[in-house]
Design a protein that fits this description.
The protein is of the alpha/beta class. It has 15 helices and 15 strands. Bound molecules: beta-D-glucopyranose.
Length: 441
Amino acid sequence: MVKASFHFPRGFLWGTATSAHQVEGFNTNNNWWAWEQQSGRILNGDKSGAACDWWGGRWRDDFDRAAAAGQNAHRFSVEWSRIQPVPDKWEESALDRYREMARNLTERGMTPLVTLHHFSDPLWLTEMGGWENEKAAGHFVAFVRKVVEALQEYVNLWVTLNEPNGLCVQGYLEGSFPPGKKDTKAYLRALTNLARAHALAYHTIHMVQPTARVGLSIYYRDLVPAKSSSPLDRFAAGLSSRMFNDFFPRAAQEGILRFPLWSRTLPEAKATQDFLGLNYYTRDLVSFDLTRPGQLFNDRSTPAGVLMSEGNYIANIPQGIYRAIKWGLKYKIPIIITENGVEDSQDVLRPRYLVEHLHQVWRAVNFNFPVKGYFHWTLVDNFEWERGWTQRFGLWELDPDTQKRKKRPSADLYAEICRENGISSEMVSRYAPEISSQLFP
Ligand code: BGC
C-alpha cells in the first residue's frame, strides 16, 4: 500500500450539521411537538423530549467537542417558534441565545452556517394552514429579517430552507411528516409557497446584510434507472429527479416553477442562490411503473449487493455524492455539502462510509468542481423525526435519559481528517482497513 494523502483546498469548511428541533428539547410550541403527541405518528411512540438538551445549555459542551475535534465550522438552525411564539411577539431572549451560540462558534474560529427553517413551524402558522397558506411566505420573511438583524455580526452564511423538496413530499404526499396529508393539490401549494418564501428571504437577507451568502439545502436523492438500457426506466428516473432534485434550485436560478406538465413564473425567485447546499445520503433504483402516475411512474428499490446501514435505511453508495456534485454544477454556483451521514449505533459502517464519501468529494474538488465545505450529519445522536430515537447518526453517542455522551471511533477519525484537511492512507488503515487497498492501491 502506498503512503499518500488526499488533500482538500485551504479554507475548506469542515463541520457537522444539527437542527433546532432535533437537539434543543422541549420545543413545545411547534407543529412537530404536537405531532409527537399523536399516537402512531412516531416510531415506537418516541418523543423529542429533552432531545440533546441544547436549550438547557448543553450546546456549549457539544460545541467544545466539535472545536476540540478540529472542526472549523458548524451548521445549526434557529427555531421559529421560540423567536416568534405568537405572531405579534418577538422573544428577544431567544434571539440572544442564538446570538450567543453564533458568537461562541466564531470565538473558537468556527464558521457558523445558520439554517432559518429546518422542518418545524410555530403552531400559530400551522393553525393558519401552514405552508398551504399564501401568507406563510410573508410571515417567514418577517422572522428572517429579525434573525438576520440579530445574528449578522457573527453569521454570513445562511440556508433559507432545509430540504423543502423532502418536506413537501413527506408532509403533503406521503403523510409521514406534519401536516400528514396525501393530497397533490396541497403538495403543489406548499411547493409554491416555499419557493416564494425562499425568494423573498433571499432578498431580505441581502437587504439587511449585503455581504451575506445565501442558499437552499436540497435533499439530493440519487435516482438511477434500474436498467440503464431501458428508455422507460430512464424516463421515470429523469422525471422524478427533475421534480424532486431540481425543482427548488431551478426555481432559484430561473425564476420559473417547473412542474411535470406545466410551469409558472416566479420572477422574484430568479438568481436567488449564492451557493447550493447538498444533502446526500443514498441512492434509489427507479423502474418505470405505469400504474403509478401519482409517483411519476416510479417504482423505487434499493441497489443490490451494497452495504446497508443498521436499519436498512441507507445504502452505502459513495459514487452518489460525486454524482450529486456533478449534477449541481449546472447551477454554476459554489457547492456546500450541508449534510451527509449514516445511522449506525455500533459505528461499524460509519468510518468506511465517511472515508468513501469524502474520497468522492475529494475527487470532485480535484476536477476543480467548486465544493467549499462538508458538514457531517451529525454531531451527537438526536431525534430523527418520524423515526424517533431508533436511528443514531451521531459522531457521539447519546443516552437521551441521562444526557451522557460517548465518543464513537468515527469522531476521532473525522477529527484527524479535519485537522489534516485531508485523508491519509495511514488514517484509513487504522479506522477502515477494509478499504485501504481500494483507496490506496
Ligand atoms: C434531514 C435531517 C435528518 C437527516 C437524517 C435529513 O433529511 O435534513 O434533519 O436528521 O436527514 O435522517
